[in-house]
Structure formats: structure tokens, C-alpha cells
Write a structure and sequence with these properties.
The protein is mainly β. The protein is built from two helices and ten strands, in the order αββαββββββββ. It folds into two domains: about 50 residues, no CATH class; about 100 residues, Immunoglobulin-like (Sandwich), CATH 2.60.40.
Length: about 170
Amino acid sequence: MKIQSGFSIFSSRNISVVLISACLLFLLAGISPVFAEDSISGSNSTPSVVTSLSASSVSPAGADVSSATKEKTQITAKVSPSNPNPGETVKVTGQLVDADGKPLAAKKVLLETSDRMGNRSDFEITGKEETDEKGYFEFLVGGGSTTTFILIHFTGDDSCEESYSDMITVI
């Protein structure tokens, strides 16, 4: 057995043959290959094949792929009283709706709080509720001695996209 150093089976000619073969397979499968240009100008490298597989290109003929699209969602939330005394419990109320403003019933929303305004990892889940038939929810947040930052988070599900409320600051 002889081993040669510096030998590569992936020469530019071999890569071109592989790319042409891949393109033929994609075309036979009904997928249009797209060639990505090299980001380094003047490079002599072989272009790579990038494919974009949409649900319609890989689903069986006649299959309904519209269910793969998730609805956009939006959360509105407010706190009352709007100017609480230090240590006072506040009520956070709001509504979860789709992009058309239609209420989303029976969806789980999370109350996330933090005592500092930082990044997402600073928040912790402190409550969980299910929206009512009109998409409304309600949480009680115990008054603290420091500023509390509040977010309402819908994690999304099979039919709806994830969304967050605007940040609420309770001083």
C-alpha cells in the first residue's frame, strides 16, 4: 500500500463534476439550484451550490402546505396602578392577538421579570397564564423595593409565531 502526501481527490475538476451531478439531481427533483458568487473578488475557486427548499418544492403533489406558515402575533400589556407606591402589588393586564387584531384564545403567555435592565438572560419566568376567549390575560406582580422590569412573552406554537410585549418599567 502506497500513501502519497499532498494528493487530494477533491481537485477542481472533481469538484466541478460533483457540482454538475448535484445540479442534475436537483433539477430532476424539481429544485432550482442557485450558484453563490465567491465573496473574494478575483478568486479562482469553484462556485458553491446553494439551494432554497420551500415547502412547496418538497411536499407531495397536491398536499396543502399553507399550514406550514405561522401567524404573526402581537402582545399589548399595561400595568395598574400606573404609578404605584414602593412595595405596592401591581396588576399586569394585556391581550394576545394575531396580525389582523383577532384575539388568540387558550394560548400560554409568560410573565418575565428582572430587577435590572440588561439582556434577555437577566429575566426569569415568574408567572404563566392562559389567555381567555378574547385573548386577555392578567398577572399580579408583588411590589418590590427596587425597580422591576416586566415582559410578557408568548413562546409561539404550531400555528403562531413567538412575540414579546414592550418592556414595562415599575419604579
